[in-house]
Amino acid sequence: VQLQASGGGLVQPGGSLRLSCAASGFNLDYYATGWFRQAPGKEREGVACIRRGDGRTSYTESAKGRFTISRDNAKNTVYLQMNSLKLEDTAVYYCATSARGCTTNLSEYDVWGQGTLVTVSS
Q1: What's the whole-number mean pLDDT along residues 55-80?
Q2: What does the pLDDT read at residue 121?
C-alpha cells in the first residue's frame, strides 16, 4: 500500500504545475484523497480533497479558483492542477487517503505519499 507523489518543481509566479499522486496496492476510488502542503516553519495544511465514488471536490480558500483536483480511475491516480501560482504556494505537497471521507483532521488520513517540492520564485 503506497502513494507516490510527483510533479513538483520550480515555477515562476503566475505559472502552472500538475502534481500526480499514484496509488499502488489499493484502489483510490474507494477512498477520499486529499492534497496537503507544508511550507518551511509552518504546519501542514489541507489544499483540496476529492471524495470516493462520486468524486465531489472541496478546496480551501487559498486554492479555490486556481487549483483543480481530479481522479483518473483507470490510472489509479489523483492530480492537482495548480494555476496562477503565487510565491506563497511554495511548499512540500503531500497526498494522502482517508477511509472517513474528506475531513480537515489530518490524523484521519491513513496513507501518505512522500511529498513533492513546489517552489514558486522569480
Answers
A1: 97
A2: 97
What is the rounded distance in angstroms from the CA atom of residue 87 to the CA atom of residue 13? 6
The DSSP bridge pattern shows strands 9-11 and 116-120 to be parallel
Tens digits of per-residue pLDDT, 16-35? 999 999 999 999 999 999 99
CA dihedral 73, 79, 83, 87 (to 10 degrees): 170
Residue with cell 487559498: 62
Q: Give mean pLDDT, residues 35-62.
A: 96
Q: What SS3 class is residue 47?
A: strand
Please calculate the CA angle 45-29-91 and round it to the nearest 5 degrees.
20
φ, ψ at 29 (rounded to 5°):
-65, -15
Sequence-separated (6 or more) residues with CB below 8 Å from residue 98: 31, 32, 33, 34, 108, 109, 110
